[in-house]
Design brief:
This protein is mostly helical and about 180 residues long. The protein is built from seven helices and two strands. It has two domains: about 1-90; about 95-183, Arc Repressor Mutant, subunit A (Orthogonal Bundle). The radius of gyration is 19 Å and the shape is globular.
């Protein structure tokens, strides 16, 4: 039986770059990615987990990264709603300023809402199935399909239409219609 401290040390030593890369895909900001990995490690190892193997520990940390990111986003949204009560009136930021029609994929993915972005990362980076994503995020399979469909529509609107060769192989059904053109 391995000590959880040695498991954490080994995970950080061997998989830190992979975890940072994963966190960057989730949030799109290298500094925030470092914070997410740190928060996820604290969340995963804050209580002793005897017998935790390194491959399982990495899965726990990856799940914690997406959970922490979504939680931070929600807190930020709630703060935006009441921020004006605690601060002097500021000149409003242009919320659509960072969105550039000619943006590359990285910039386009950053514009997705957190849950949609998490679904995209889990589907196309982790190569999880729709049921696995639903289980991972604790949402319905239909919601995952809708988020992926919305994401593809948004990304096509931002980056241009995908060729049929680039289009995902699975058909996403939304409201009784096929999500693929030409079906």
């Amino acid at each position: 039986m391995t000590d959880w401290r040695s498991t954490m040390e080994q995970l950080v030593r061997e998989r830190e770059r992979a975890l940072l890369g994963y966190a960057y895909l989730v949030c799109g900001d290298p500094v925030q990615a470092q914070d997410l990995v740190q928060d996820a490690l604290v969340k995963t190892f804050s209580k002793p987990r005897p017998g935790l193997e390194i491959h399982k520990a990495e899965g726990y940390v990856r799940r914690a990264i997406t959970t922490v990111y979504i939680d931070q986003y929600r807190r930020g949204q709630r703060w935006q709603k009441v921020r004006h009560l605690f601060q002097t009136q500021e000149v409003g930021d242009d919320e659509f300023g960072p969105i550039d029609v000619g943006a590359d994929v990285d910039d386009a993915v950053r514009t997705l809402p957190p849950r949609v972005r998490a679904c995209v990362v889990l589907r196309y980076f982790d190569d999880l199935t729709v049921p696995a994503i639903a289980h991972e995020l604790g949402i319905a399979e239909g919601t995952v399909k809708r988020y992926l469909s919305d994401a593809i529509g948004h990304l096509e609107g931002t980056l241009g239409a995908l060729d049929d060769a680039e289009r995902p192989s699975e058909t996403v059904v939304v409201s009784g219609r096929s999500g693929r053109s030409g079906s």
